[in-house]
Amino acid sequence: MKKDDGTSEEDGEVFGGDSYHDLSSNDLSYSDHSLVTSGPVHDWEEEKTTDFFDDGTMTYFWRAHTLTTLVFMICFLLYEALTPPDEDMVDNTKRGLVASVSAFILLGVTVTPDGPFKRPHPAIWRFTFIISIVYELGLIFMLYQSASGARQLLKHIDPKLGEPMEEKDYGGNCHLYDQENPDDPYHNIKDKTDLFVPLHFFGWWLKTLLLRDWWLCWVISVMFEILEYTLEHQLPNFSECWWDHWIMDALLCNGLGIYCGLQSLKYFSMKTYHWRGLWNIPTYRGKLRRIMAQFGPYVWVDYDWKPLSSLGRWFSMLGIIAIFLLAELNTFYLKFVLWVEPGHWANLVRLIFILPWGAVALREVFQFLDDPDFMKFGRQSWLFLAIVCTELLIVIKFGWETVTIPFPSHVVTLWMTIFILLVLWTVWNFYIDPYTIKVDSKDIERRREHWSQVRAIETKLSPSESRLFDPKVFFDKFMQKGSKED
């Protein structure tokens, strides 16, 4: 009989165990704009009291192995200490900095507490968190340099960096069909189809998985196109044709990315999460499926942001949108003021790390806003906010001549109109409109119960002292199982 994960009973249950971790759309409602969530249909009290048998394959895999890590680090440092010294001062300085940063990363990955995400391994998320600390420290150091000094620092990463570059202008001839060029009348479309096309598509696919809300994705997508119109007098590559803005970027690339992201959200939201230890699966095919499933979520939590549920939540959502857009703008301004080519690997590395930082930060922010018992602002959220603000300060300091270029009058009029309409709508919705849905005590209790369920499941995921791998216990259980089969 086929299961929802594609395995059969003969393969062994990939998502096996003593009970199901089924947070379906009925339990954690996948809602794009609804202000009301349905009550739980799963027996969570029974779920909390279920005793899970751990065969040791997960707890041993998840342990930090602090002593083993320390031994390897000491051995490496011992090798460096016994190696004949190099008289090159510059090379020694670089190697010393790399070793210091590596030791800090190793220490952080080993001792830093786990965050909200633990798959495929908690060490991966601890690593990305420590990298965000290193990146923020690097930004602070760069902030104390001059513009030319900061560009020269980048040459230590890659000698090709820090050189003046020519920004590509995407405006100019905006004809879809250029009759003046009969040999290649569609050259305008071909010229504007570059690296940013796949980046837009895959970027918004992943951003949708981060935001987990269709309206929030579309608001940010449209607002960024408006910001490109607003800032095209400062950055030449923001000057695009109208069809490049709204058809190629917003509708095709961003729209298809958001659609694929929503389909992925529906898949994760409706999926039944049911896990077994690897060695409890009898067949190699089932074990392989279980290993692949390790790279998916342990349990899925949908984000029902409820932006209109309260004035505080509304302002919080405006803040999330603003920070998201600012992080997007920093990508373009940083490469402009630091002279980093758009196709350089440094830009890609930054974008790759921003995705897990943003994923954890959004989860922490959502729980901070939605969980009545979660009173602490998340550490990754705090650090992500610090990174975005520090990047902005670097842009302002090194690109002062660029960011102080006066805005055209029509741009000022546009944003004044948007601001006034936003203020008027906020006053109407939260102070005048009698039909606005207010948060009541039942909603608070419903959210408290919801997050207690999530914490109960996440607690079972983490290896506790009582469930650490004991070889003797595992061997006894293995022998008992073999005797029963005989």
TrEMBL record:
Q: Where are the transmembrane segments?
A: 60-82, 94-111, 123-144, 214-231, 243-262, 314-333, 345-362, 382-400, 412-432
**Which superkingdom?**
Eukaryota
**Region feature Disordered, mapped onto this chain:** 1-20
Where is this gene product found? Endoplasmic reticulum membrane
Which top EC class is given?
transferase
| Gene Ontology BP, a term | phosphatidylserine biosynthetic process
What metabolic or biological pathway is this protein involved in?
A: Lipid metabolism; Phospholipid metabolism; phosphatidylserine biosynthesis
What is the protein's membrane topology class? Multi-pass membrane protein
Q: Which GO terms describe its cellular component?
A: endoplasmic reticulum membrane
Its EC number is 2.7.8.29
Q: Describe the reaction catalysed, as an equation.
A: 1-(1Z-octadecenyl)-2-(4Z,7Z,10Z,13Z,16Z,19Z-docosahexaenoyl)-sn-glycero-3-phosphoethanolamine + L-serine = 1-(1Z-octadecenyl)-2-(4Z,7Z,10Z,13Z,16Z,19Z-docosahexaenoyl)-sn-glycero-3-phospho-L-serine + ethanolamine; 1-(1Z-octadecenyl)-2-(5Z,8Z,11Z,14Z- eicosatetraenoyl)-sn-glycero-3-phosphoethanolamine + L-serine = 1-(1Z-octadecenyl)-2-(5Z,8Z,11Z,14Z-eicosatetraenoyl)-sn-glycero-3-phospho-L-serine + ethanolamine; 1-octadecanoyl-2-(5Z,8Z,11Z,14Z)-eicosatetraenoyl-sn-glycero-3-phosphoethanolamine + L-serine = 1-octadecanoyl-2-(5Z,8Z,11Z,14Z)-eicosatetraenoyl-sn-glycero-3-phosphoserine + ethanolamine; 1-octadecanoyl-2-(9Z-octadecenoyl)-sn-glycero-3-phosphoethanolamine + L-serine = 1-octadecanoyl-2-(9Z-octadecenoyl)-sn-glycero-3-phospho-L-serine + ethanolamine
Q: Write out the entry's keywords from A to Z.
A: Endoplasmic reticulum, Lipid biosynthesis, Lipid metabolism, Membrane, Phospholipid biosynthesis, Phospholipid metabolism, Transferase, Transmembrane, Transmembrane helix
Question: Its Gene Ontology molecular function terms?
Answer: L-serine-phosphatidylethanolamine phosphatidyltransferase activity
Give the matching InterPro entries: PSS (IPR004277)
Per its database record, what is this protein's job?
Catalyzes a base-exchange reaction in which the polar head group of phosphatidylethanolamine (PE) is replaced by L-serine.
Concerning its family, UniProt says: Belongs to the phosphatidyl serine synthase family.
Its recorded name reads Phosphatidylserine synthase
Name the species this protein comes from.
Homarus americanus (American lobster)
Its gene is Ptdss2-L
